[in-house]
Amino acid sequence: MNLHGVKIGFALTGSHCTIGEVLPQIEKLIKAGTQVFPIISPAVNNVSTRFGEAKDIKERLKKITGNRIIKSIVDAEPIGPQKMFDIIVIAPCTGNTLAKLANGITDTPVLMSAKAQLRNQRPVVLAISTNDGLGLNAKNLGILLATKNIFIVPFGQDDPLQKPTSLVSRLDLLLPTIEKALKREQIQPILLSNFSML
Question: How far apart are CA 177 and CA 162, in angstroms?
């Protein structure tokens, strides 16, 4: 599929250990001809961790995309009325964001952007990264798997022995997931076995 000119709202949430793997995927999307507009949660906006300083992540996002960062609910509100994006990607999508999205809570720019996109019956792609995907968040994942216009990047258990409830999406499958989602199709298979060995 030709992605040239496709407008992507690319939202990052606070799975800080995964952000370093997400940024090269944004570069790959831009090389494929898309326009990427970054959206960040308060955790990405404000929290520095051993995986990176918040200011450095924001500077890199601006440099990679060439666009200003949407980092407030007010900035995210026009996404719906103006139909700003062809598709929204949430990567990484934390368990917190997963739970709120499944239960209609809109208290961050990322969630506002997803709500706005779904209101317009446009696709939202989730690349999950959560330690409780097979725990407390399993029911929320189930809700979203059955929700129209939500598409999931294939995922599996990243460490079944040490973290048996942890799920992580295969980020190398993000671009083909987006291509399918733009056609309103879910890439298959969604559930990957032996994830840690792939």
Answer: 28
State the DSSP H helix or E strand holding residue 103, giving kind and residue range, or none if neither.
none
Residue 47 lies in a domain: yes
In a domain, 2, yes or no: no
Contacts of residue 52, defined as CB under 8 A and 6 or more positions apart, other chains included, come to: 16, 19, 20
Domain limits for position 41: 7-197
Which pairing describes strands 155-156 and 7-12: parallel, antiparallel, or unpaired? Answer: unpaired
Paired with 150 in beta bridges are: 124
Q: What is the CATH number of the domain that holds 99?
A: 3.40.50.1950
Number of domains making up the chain: 1
* Single pTM value for the model: 0.95
Asked if residue 172 is part of any domain, the answer here is: yes
Which of 61, 67, 68, 62 has the alpha carbon at shortest distance from 23?
Answer: 61
CB 128 within 8 A of CB 98: yes
Taking only the tens place, the pLDDT of each residue in 135-187 is 999 999 999 999 999 999 999 999 999 999 999 999 999 999 999 999 999 99
pLDDT in tens, 13-61: 999 999 999 999 999 999 999 999 999 999 999 999 999 999 999 999 9
